Amino acid sequence: MAAEAVDLRRGFDGLAAATRTVIREDPLSGHVFCFLNRRRNRIKLLVWDRTGYVIVYKRLERGTFTLATTPAPGQRHVEMDAGELTLLLEGVDLRGAIHRTRWRRLPATRSMPLSPGAGL
């Protein structure tokens, strides 16, 4: 997600150029790149699907899109996962949301050798 406003009159090539300059990523990577207008009531999503670009354009009738986090110093974009993007597109303000810690597999530990007579 570009943290700064982008002129949404841009089409496929203009948004691909904004992906390279603002977000500093390759628009052909398959990621979904998001751009907001200055008033933050419109959003465009750009994605490459191996056969061409796809643009999704949404306008909120009321309210604004709100980024859940601010960009890190020196960054001009914010990364988000699919769930956050879905809620953003629904108009949910995630600034006060609490993210639960997710389960993750611990690194594999070395198995202890069985002692003699352990029931092989």
What does this structure look like?
This protein has helices at 12-23, 82-89; strands at residues 33-36, 42-48, 53-59. With 120 residues, it is an alpha+beta fold. The chain has a domain at 12-89. A hairpin with a 4-residue loop joins strand 2 (42-48) and strand 3. The model has no long low-confidence stretch (mean pLDDT 87).
Please tag this protein with its features.
120 residues, 3-stranded antiparallel β-sheet, 2 helices, 3 strands
Class computed from helices, strands and strand pairing = alpha+beta
Oligomer: single chain
Tally the beta strands. Answer: 3
Return Rg in Å. Answer: 21 Å
Q: What is the overall number of helices?
A: 2
Unreliable residue runs: none
Measured distance between first and last alpha carbons? 56 Å
* Order of strands, widest sheet: 1-2-3
Percent helix range:
10-25%
What does the average pLDDT come to? 87
Share in β-strands: 15-25%
